[in-house]
Amino acid sequence: MKKVNLLAATAFAIVAPAIASTPAFAQSAPAQAPEATQDEPAVDDVVVTATKRETTLLDTPISVSVTTGATIQEAQIRDLIDLQTVVPSLRVSQLQSSANTNFIIRGFGNGANNAGIEPSVGVFIDGVYRSRSAAQIADLPNVKRVEVLRGPQSTLFGKNASAGIISIVTAEPAFKFGGNIEGTYGNFNAFILKADVTGPITDTVAFSLAGNFNSRDGYIQDVVLRTDFNNRDRYGFRGQLLFQPSSDLKFRIIADFDNINENCCGVVNIVAGPTVAAIRAIGGNIITGSPFSYTVANNARSINKIDNYGISLQGDKDFGKFSLTSISAARAVDSFTNQDSDFSSADLIGSNINDTQIRTLTQEVRLASNFGGRFEFLLGGYYFYESIDFTGNLTFGRDFRAYAQALSGNGISTVEGLLGVPANTFSQRGQGRFENWIYRNTAYSFFGSADFKITDTLTFTGGVNYTNDSKRFASANSSTDAFSALDFVAIGRNVLSQQALATTVGGLLGLPAGTLATAAQIGAFAAANPAGFAQVQAGANAFGAANATNAAVNPLLGLQALQFLPPFLNLPNAVEPGRTADDNVSYSLRLAWKATNNISLYFTYGTGFKASSINLGADSRPFPADFIPGSPAATPPPAASRIRTAGLAVPNLTTGSRFAAPEIARVIEGGVKGQFPKGAFNIAVFQQEIDNFQGNIFTGTGFVLTNAGKQSTFGIEFDGNYSPVRALTLNFDITYLRPRFDSFINGAALNAGFTTSPANLTGLRPAGIPEVSLSTGFTYRRAISQGVKLLLRSDYQWTSPTQIAEGAPQFRRSITSLNTSISFEFKNGFEISFWGRNLVDQQFISTIFPSVAQAGSLSGYPSQPRTYGGTVRFKF
Fold first, then answer.
1. In this structure, are residues 782 and 41 in contact, taking their beta carbons and an 8 Å threshold?
2. Phi, psi of 178 (to 5 degrees)
3. What is the C-alpha to C-alpha distance for residues 468 and 609, in angstroms, rounded to an integer?
4. 121-486+563-572+588-621+656-825+835-871 under CATH 2.40.170.20, yes or no
5. Which of 82-96, 261-275, 371-385, 502-516 has the weakest average pLDDT?
6. What Å distances lie between residue 166 and 148, 160, 307, 436, CA to CA?
7. Domain boundaries, the chain
8. How far apart are CA 108 and CA 115, in angstroms?
């Protein structure tokens, strides 16, 4: 608590000289920013649309960070992944592939590594919802501002805003001809081109066209393939038409396409377990030692191909006392990935293909009042439809059998001999699991909010949202991995019974001690003494039944560790319908007080909602309520369950989840905002919690969805900037978070052997959420000669040490990053910039996880090293 008080005291001490946040309170400038006529920083009101109305940031009773297009340009922020360097409450991670990016606000967020998981942080671009991370990470031209709304925002934004919103606003076409072209070159052979042009077509129609190209070598070198990982290879186009037939009516059409084709994402070894020796014994290799050598040894490139495209139409009509807005959109994402998932030069995993097609249709209609009095309202409706078609496979490579043989002491061949099947039947190249999923989601919501001015300075706002969400999903999965379908309890029971019978008969026949009777001898004994044989056979069967599940007696149980791809039960089936139906009423209550013309205070209580997420993967398993796993050959056999009673049980079927239940969020928040001639500030103190927080746990060969009973966070956020002189702006942003799992009985964590096992995480701090996140810096702008201006910008980011993964306190990370740019702006429109990001070249591991099919080993994703370069820009 002392730390909380210290942070609060520090924040208020900084308020005294009236400071304000650069990212949260910078001027909202168009893409073609006009040239400054003096060195004094802008102090105009920032207009945001966090409440789906245009309001000044000072008068918006929500915790919002605003990053302008100017800041994005000057700080060399290329995409949403870079945005976290100037927004401390935001965390962005990229895992496994370019399509798997996760956004986290105030410690809450999910949505990666499974197409069926909807994010808790909603991303909107020009009012259009982007439902999956693959549709969110492209480079965007003409960004006017990025608004990060912290805390539940479901009242106005619907079903997937339980943790917050990222709203990207781009510049409209202008009726004055202009444009921008820029080129960048940097280390790792980075080459970036951007261009845009806008202007009138007629007196009522304007256009804009923009394109971008981003290419860069990777910073992780593969010593086997002689290539690099984590490169950049992407491009995009965007076109807009603005039709404004009158001052009270306008239509805006946006069409865009972007493409990503990259070798991502490089994985390094963190802990070399005992399986590394087996990989090297069959001729493969894993680079061990320092994970920051940025070298790997793989046998295949990772393919990441993403096409993201869509079109939207927004219409706005002003009726005087009312205004009507309609936003219609159709979007598509085609994503294809294939990863060398064993992260070694041995060909253990031959393919890990994920081929996903996502189609979405959205329609939003809003009616807002413009009375200009004590009462205002906003009413709206929203419709969402999404279809996902997913196919994938995980197959064994040419070295997998040799690897399995090395781990098991030729146990694979032993089993083939016991079963009498041909040699080389199991664990062959090309065997594996094959997935086919279809998913359909229909949702609609009705929402409204009303502002009541109790006095001239005190306003009460109430909002409510009803959301209905239904999903249907079906699978047609199959497996050719016959080894993973073997019931080693039943096989072992039979083997133990046969051995006991042969041993006993051998003893009765007077054979030397330990000598097993042959089949012929057993047959002769049975024929000569049928009653005695029946008694011996009963005893042998009892021995087998009693010891089939005893690993000390049944050595075949040790081979279960090599059954990486257990059978799958498709759905819908007689027990599982393959559908969810959710509805929810979210609401918010706010009281805002304009204490003075420069200071406002607000208090908020709000709720949020996120609908069920579906596990569209082979690790989708029946719920424990529907199935009790176990072999029928076990003593005692597993208890009856709905799936077993229906005759649907297959050997080695396990339990898990088909979907994660809906999230319900609540927040209590109070804040103070101030804006002064030389700066501004924003303080928020909050207690936020989510019931049934959805988690996605990696098991070593796949992902399992789960729900935390309750996760909560207490936090303090401060951001501000101050301009002591005309040419200099200082900024300081800090976030303190104290998260905990209030209830998470069915959690999972790394164990001592670095595999994932069930764990009760109740009362523990969630991993990956730093206690303190800080961003500070300055911007210095002044004329250095006639027609030449100097712009110097630097920002520093720091986070306190935090545990990376549940159950592994020995693995921690702390981020220290320094980003700097210096620019020379010329009167004729030219600009030359030199920049560097992560100039201290700090290295850290962002995430760790159990290595695929390599018990005892850990893998991880290393941070991006120092980057630097130069940019030439021309504005016209």
1. no
2. -175, 175
3. 11
4. yes
5. 82-96
6. 5, 12, 21, 32
7. 121-486+563-572+588-621+656-825+835-871, 488-561
8. 19
